[in-house]
Amino acid sequence: MAWPQKQGGVEQVARYILGRLGMAVVLMLCAMESMAQDDVEYRYDIGVGAGATTYYGDFNSKLMGNLQPAGAVVFRKIINPRSAVRISGMYTRAKGSYDKGMTDYPDLDATGGYDFNNTLGDLSAVYEYNFWAFGTGKDYRGAKRVAPFVALGVGLTYVGCKTGMRDYSNPRPQSTTRRVVSANVPLGFGVKYRIKDRVNLTLDWQMHFSLTDQIDGVKDPYRVKSDGLFKNTDCYSTLMLSLAYCFSAKCPTCMKDR
Question: H or E segment at 9?
Fold first, then answer.
């Protein structure tokens, strides 16, 4: 390191020292910024959710009719900052009733009406696509802490009916069958918020189009057998708020999804 000549005296020495200190501060700030832009990305998150479910079928057509509380466990495989695959298990109930003031079902009128309070379980896997990169902004350049998304997938629906299913397309509608398992297609949208580096908050709404007409325990109440994949089948919607924790950090020295 070359020391300044003595002609400048104390003033020149002071300028030289201040210049060197300033350069050191700039280099230190650049190093800190580089470290901040190299935060860890994560492969997975896991959490729990709570919300409400509405059944749609022969005994309810209202968007928010007969809301029932719902709970869920959520696991997500984070593919990259713009996409993920989410697997979730949900437990709730499908509840409703029928009386003569509603659409006329002669067979149910003869029995004095109908009430149901069935167990409803759902296991689904959906692909989530974020409208833009989701993250802290430090783990992936340009990522935002808030990101809307759309979701589409496949699932299984479980229905438990204590009183037994009724299939009015058969001569003897009352059945001893108390459980039904069917496929469903979930379709929805939502928004994610990164609270902390490892904590995500998600609010989403999904419609589950099932392949069964027995979520309410009654199939074909007009005694007309339904044909077709989604013709005259029941469905249900979910509004869920979930909190998840990220884990399994990616190697910080490996190539990232940039």
Answer: helix 9-36
Helix (H) or strand (E) holding 147: strand 146-160
Amino acid at 81: P
Phi, psi at 86, each rounded to 5°: -110, 130
Whose tokens are 């003033």? That residue is 11
The residue type of 193 is: Y
Q: What gap in Å lies between CA 254 and CA 72, rounded to an integer?
A: 34
If we measure between CA atoms, which residue out of 203, 207, 192 comes closest to residue 238?
207
- Among residues 127, 115, 132, 188, the alpha carbon closest in space to that of 153 is found at 127
Least Cα distance to 186 among 133, 239, 145 occurs for 239
Name the phi and psi angles at 112, rounded to 5: 85, 20
pLDDT, one tens digit per residue, over 186-218 is 999 999 999 988 999 999 999 999 998 889 878
Dump pLDDT digits (tens) for 136-189: 877 677 889 999 999 999 999 999 988 777 776 666 666 667 889 999 999 999
- SS3 state at 63: coil
Instruction: Look at residue 42 and give its three-state secondary structure.
Output: strand
Question: Do 72 and 123 meet the contact criterion of CB atoms below 8 Å apart?
Answer: no
pTM of the model: 0.78
Q: Is residue 215 within 8 Å of residue 119, measured between CB atoms?
A: no
Mean pLDDT of 34-56: 82
